[in-house]
């Protein structure tokens, strides 16, 4: 019996964030039978689990929004538009970069719909917990779901878990953070309700309140400029990025500490708005979570690690299967991001080898786990780029391909790459 006839699926994708959705769509559009496995009860990854309410990386920097991502990412935007969201480029007031604003409930529904339309089987409330492998290939994953554990075999696998959880259980070597003990800060966006929709949010009043709080408060605010905020599309709520915490290591104890600290800080900061900022007299904490925003954990070893020079120099390559167009954004010190622009033509090529795990021929990487040094990581991790690296990993998995030039050709045929 051929391997294909044996396996239930051609491609199994672990993780349903932008990288995983891109991978599932890419593999399905290339003709594969695809199963996507997600540990939460909804898709979207950081956009829906951590209230990261803007897709970055769809456009290059500059006075006009020049597209860097098409294909699967565009299919998702079309679905969002069909649900009444605008899905168009907006210029960030804070950074001047082009972003797409999101409503998390819309994202959940749009992703359900786009995957169903492409015949992808989705298993929610299910996590990849173990693998069986030979010295060169993955054979199957063990899924831990509501019915207990089950084995699922496939021809190819994509790790789009953000935290490299599939690579971890598969024994792929990896770097934690910058490799020298440094992890980018955790940030917990929150939503604040009860604000008069007609009220203009006054940054100067927020800055002054923070300065007073920092002189006496329990949890000094790193973002003394008032943080990043916007109105959540379709609601009067304020989305506020003001809570930053250092992450010391990847233990469950550390994650428990940052989750609980973020909740305590959220309560204090919303009370500060209510007590001291005009227009917030009736403000309440509408939402934290479901979980804090985790910027960085593990980086599995890929066959090529993109470098900061690749991004800053805008390096283009014939084996490029995606475009990284977001400026390098580094969050070493909590609440004090540093940016470096993308050079060259405004994007850097992501080669297929940075989507291929070392040592296992049929394990591909998508989203923020692709091969990247600490500087390149500051660019490639954004969700627009994750849709593109995901789509490329999915197409490569469906074809069993190792040649970036060939995969780039397939992506062009699918309209995913120009
Ligand atoms: C505070 C913050 C602000 C950010 N701001 C922006 C921004 O404005 N715009 C932007 O584009 N990017 C932003 N980013 C970066 C971006 O959100 C992430 O880098 C991006 O979401 C990575 O996509 P991904 O698909 O690789 O991973 P994720 O979005 O993390 O998705 C991974 C998915 O895998 C699932 N999973 C994990 N383990 C398993 C398992 N074992 N089995 C099954 N499923 C599993 C998770 O539940 C999750 O749904 C921000 C990040 C943070 C933390």
Task: Walk me through what this model shows.
By secondary structure, the chain is of the alpha+beta class. The protein folds into two domains: 3-180 and 296-413, FAD/NAD(P)-binding domain; 186-287, no CATH class. It is 31% helix and 22% strand. Strands 1, 2, 6, 7, 8, 9 and 22 form a seven-stranded mixed β-sheet that branches. Strand 7 (127-133) and strand 8 (138-145) form a beta hairpin. Helix 4 (71-82) packs across helix 5 (104-117). The radius of gyration is 21 Å and the shape is globular. The protein starts with a helix and ends in a 5-residue tail after the last helix. The structure holds flavin-adenine dinucleotide. Flavin-adenine dinucleotide (FAD) binds next to helix 2, helix 3, strand 3, strand 7 and helix 11.
Features:
binds flavin-adenine dinucleotide, 12 helices, alpha+beta, disordered N terminus, 418 residues, globular
Gist?
By secondary structure, this protein is α+β, with helices and mostly antiparallel strands. It has two domains: 3-180 and 296-413, FAD/NAD(P)-binding domain; 186-287, no CATH class. It has twelve helices and 22 strands.
CATH topology group of the largest domain: FAD/NAD(P)-binding domain
- Tell me the structural class: alpha+beta
Mean pLDDT: 94
Strand residue percentage: 15-25%
Number of β-strand runs: 22
**What is the CATH architecture annotation of the largest domain?**
3-Layer(bba) Sandwich
């Amino acid at each position: 019996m051929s391997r294909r006839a044996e396996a239930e699926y051609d491609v199994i994708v672990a993780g349903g964030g932008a990288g995983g959705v891109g991978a599932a769509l890419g593999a399905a559009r290339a003709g594969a039978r695809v199963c996507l496995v997600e540990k939460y009860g909804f898709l979207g990854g950081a956009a829906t689990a951590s209230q990261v309410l803007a897709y970055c990386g769809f456009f290059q920097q500059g006075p006009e929004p020049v597209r860097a991502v098409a294909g699967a990412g565009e299919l998702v935007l079309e679905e969002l538009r069909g649900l009444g969201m605008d899905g168009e480029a907006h210029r960030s007031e804070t950074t001047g970069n082009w972003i797409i604003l999101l409503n998390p409930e819309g994202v959940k529904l749009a992703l359900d719909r786009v995957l169903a339309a492409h015949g992808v089987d989705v298993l929610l409330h299910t996590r990849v917990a173990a693998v069986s492998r030979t010295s060169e290939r993955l054979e199957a994953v063990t899924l831990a779901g509501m019915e207990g554990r089950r084995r699922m075999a496939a021809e190819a696998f994509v790790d789009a878990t953000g935290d490299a959880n599939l690579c971890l259980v598969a024994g792929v070597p990896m770097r934690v953070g910058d490799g020298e003990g440094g992890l980018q800060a955790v940030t917990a966006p929150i939503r604040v309700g009860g604000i008069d929709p007609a009220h203009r949010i006054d940054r100067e009043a927020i800055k002054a309140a923070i300065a007073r709080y920092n002189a006496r408060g329990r949890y000094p605010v790193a973002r003394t400029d008032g943080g990043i905020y916007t109105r959540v599309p379709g609601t009067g709520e304020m989305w506020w990025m003001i809570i930053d915490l250092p992450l010391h290591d990847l233990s469950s104890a550390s994650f428990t500490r940052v989750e609980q600290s973020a909740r305590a800080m959220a309560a204090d900061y919303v009370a500060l708005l209510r007590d001291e900022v005009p227009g917030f007299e009736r403000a309440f904490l509408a939402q934290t979570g479901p979980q804090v925003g985790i910027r960085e954990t593990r980086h599995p070893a890929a066959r090529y690690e993109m470098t900061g020079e690749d991004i800053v120099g805008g390096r283009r390559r014939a084996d490029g299967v995606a475009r990284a167009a977001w400026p390098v954004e580094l969050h070493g010190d909590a609440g004090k991001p540093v940016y470096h622009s993308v050079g060259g033509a405004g994007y850097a090529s992501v080669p297929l080898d940075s989507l291929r795990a070392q040592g296992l021929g049929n394990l591909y990487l998508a989203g923020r786990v692709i091969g990247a040094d600490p500087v390149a990581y500051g660019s490639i991790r954004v969700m627009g780029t994750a849709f593109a690296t995901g789509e490329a990993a999915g197409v490569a998995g469906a074809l069993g391909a190792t040649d970036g030039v060939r995969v780039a050709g397939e992506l062009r045929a699918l309209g995913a790459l120009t």
